[in-house]
Amino acid sequence: MENGWDKSAQAWLSIIGEGGDFSRRHVLDRPMLERVRVSGAQRVLDVGCGEGRFCRMVADLGARATGIDPTRELLKAAQQRGGASYVEGRAEALPFEECSFDMVVFYLSLIDIAELDQAVSEAVRVLRPGGHVLIGNLNAWITASQTKCDGWERDADGAASMIIDRYLEEYAIRGRWEGMDIVNWHRPQVRYMQAMLNAGLHLVHFDEPRAHGLPDRKYDDTPYLYLMDWALD
């Protein structure tokens, strides 16, 4: 299935810039970087690195960052901006030797990957014993709400309700916004948890971080992002 990223690359570069979008800049960046810091990871692989923004942030902590992505236009932008090593490739077949990294990061990229179990298996293969898999992701209720009417419907009085549909299933959804047209994957939370547990990982940290650096805190009423830090025995 064509996931749309090749055609959406320019739109993404316009949206993300160097500062990042709301989800990254005001919610996930700070706690994700803190997990990298406390882990002591020196070799970090960012799977689905896109234009390389998080790789550069990891490198600023003093770690050696490597980014991998299948979208050539995004990789070209990453290489032009520098700060890390960038490799073309897919999460399901990482072109690295076993035990190559102290941490593997999926920063809002697991929702783009069709073969979840293979991606997790590959992450574990290239991870050293005692290493970490760090995940930033969308809550499953938000991906389950995108299948009908863009997730909302209104009654006769104009009151809005969110539609949660087919939550326990796993299926592709097409997201369209600001020139983007890509395929994401909805999975229930249990699907992600079981994939990690089946791969021999154990959970060492979980958070649904509050937004920061904003004049209002509306996000905190309905937070739709979380992070997980899993370790390999």
Give structural notes.
This protein has seven helices and eleven strands. Helix content is 31%, strand content 30%. It has 233 residues and is α/β, with parallel strands linked by helices. It has helices spanning 5-16, 22-39, 53-60, 72-81, 116-125, 140-143, 189-198, and strands spanning 43-47, 64-69, 85-88, 101-107, 127-138, 152-154, 160-162, 171-177, 180-186, 201-207, 225-232. It has a seven-stranded mixed beta sheet with strand order 3-2-1-4-5-11-10, sandwiched between helices. It has a two-stranded antiparallel ribbon with strand order 6-7.
Overall pLDDT score: 92
Low-confidence stretches: none
Spatial shape: globular
Query: Got a strand count?
Result: 11
- Biggest sheet details: 7 strands, mixed
Q: What's the number of helices?
A: 7
Return the string of H and E elements.
HHEHEHEEHEHEEEEHEE
Residue share in β-strands: 25-35%
**Helix percentage:** 25-40%
End-to-end separation in angstroms reads 35 Å
**Structural class computed from helices and strand pairing:** alpha/beta
Integer-rounded radius of gyration? 17 Å
Oligomer, anyone?
Answer: single chain
Q: Strand order, biggest sheet? A: 3-2-1-4-5-11-10
Task: Offer a few descriptive terms.
alpha/beta; 30% strand; 7 helices; 233 residues; globular; 31% helix
Summarize the structure.
By secondary structure, the protein is of the alpha/beta class. The protein has helices spanning about 5-15, 20-40, 55-60, 70-80, 115-125, 140-145, 190-200, and strands at about 45, 65-70, 85-90, 100-105, 125-140, 150-155, 160, 170-175, 180-185, 200-205, 225-230. The strands form 3 sheets. Strands 3-2-1-4-5-11-10 form a 7-stranded mixed β-sheet, with helices on both faces.
